[in-house]
Structures are given as C-alpha cells and as structure tokens.
Amino acid sequence: MPRRLRGAAYQAFYRLPHSMRRRIVRFIVPKYLVGAVCIVRDAEAADPGRLLLLRQPPGRGWGLPAGLLKKAEQPAVGAARELREESGVDIDPADLTPAVPNAIVHTKGWVDTVFLATVPASTNPLVVDGGEVLEADWFPLDDLPPLTPSTAYLLGIYGIGPHAAQQTP
After folding, report:
1. Looking at residue 148, what DSSP letter applies?
2. pLDDT of the chain along its 169 residues, tens only?
3. H, E, C per residue of 93-142
4. Can you tell me which residues the record assigns to a coiled coil (predicted)?
5. Is residue 57 reached through a cis peptide bond, with omega within 30 degrees of 0 on the bond before it?
6. What number does CATH give the domain 33-157?
7. What's the CA gap between 51 and 138, in Å, rounded?
8. Do residues 79 and 36 make contact, with C-beta atoms less than 8 angstroms apart?
9. Which of 102, 81, 103, 104 is nearest to 91 (CA)?
C-alpha cells in the first residue's frame, strides 16, 4: 500500500470511536484457541522410556493429555488440570517444566503451550472416565501406537515418534 494511502487510512481509522476501532481490530486480527499439552514420561522406565498416551473418541489414534485453557487460566495450571481430568495423574503445576519451544502454532488456528513432566507410573494409577477419554496407557518411546496427526506433529518437534527427524522448531 503506498505510503500516503496508508497514512490516510490510519488517520481515518483513528477518527473512529474507540469502540468501533476495537471491533474492527477484533474482526481483522487472527484469532487462536490456546491449549495446554503435557508430555509425560514414566520416571521408573528403563531407556528409552515410556510415554503416557490417551485414546479419545472417535479412537482413531492416540494423543497426549491436552485441552483448551479456561479464561485467564495460567498455562501450567491448565496443563495440570487437563492431565488430572483425562488420566487421573495429579501433579502440581509448579512441577511441570515448560518445553522448548514452549508454544506450538498449529495450522488450524490453535496454539499449544507444551509442558514436560516425569512421574512414577507405579504410584500414579491411570483413571479414565470413558466419555472424554476411552483409554490411557504407558507406551515405550521406541514402540508407540498409531498417533493422531496433531500428536505425531507435536511429538516430532521434540524428537519423539515417527516424525522426529522431519520436524524443526
């Protein structure tokens, strides 16, 4: 856009009432859903380790404990809440470690904040409700079950799973 035209557009925009400017910005600016994801490893497993995965309806692949954040909820708090709700594993949000990179932008309009946790599987029995989650289990990192596409993508960024060599942060 030529400089003069852009300047005139900004002048016209700033003459609008504040409430109208805010509506225009909210309409134009991309919107994302923000979620929290936990990559949970078994503290007692021998190398290469085990990963907690969930099978959710419709059951076409396994995924990670994850969900959308509630309004004004801190990401670590949301990650711990989702982990507890979906698997029965109760962890203090302070014990979650932000993954690097911590935020993953998906192509379908959502952003995941990713956290790492290590818990002993023997003292954390897996409990699922049968509605939101059909099944939860620990899987060896070198023998993962079929994953949902978004889980395979996300794990690949962290060097885990079938897409590990293909992803870059």
Report:
1. P
2. 677 787 788 788 878 898 888 888 878 877 788 999 999 999 999 888 999 999 998 878 999 999 999 989 999 999 999 999 999 999 999 999 999 999 998 877 789 999 999 999 999 999 998 788 999 999 999 999 999 998 999 999 999 987 776 655 5
3. HHHCEEEEEEEEECCCCEEEEEEEEEECHHHCCCCCCCCCCCEEEEEECC
4. none
5. no
6. 3.90.79.10
7. 5
8. yes
9. 81
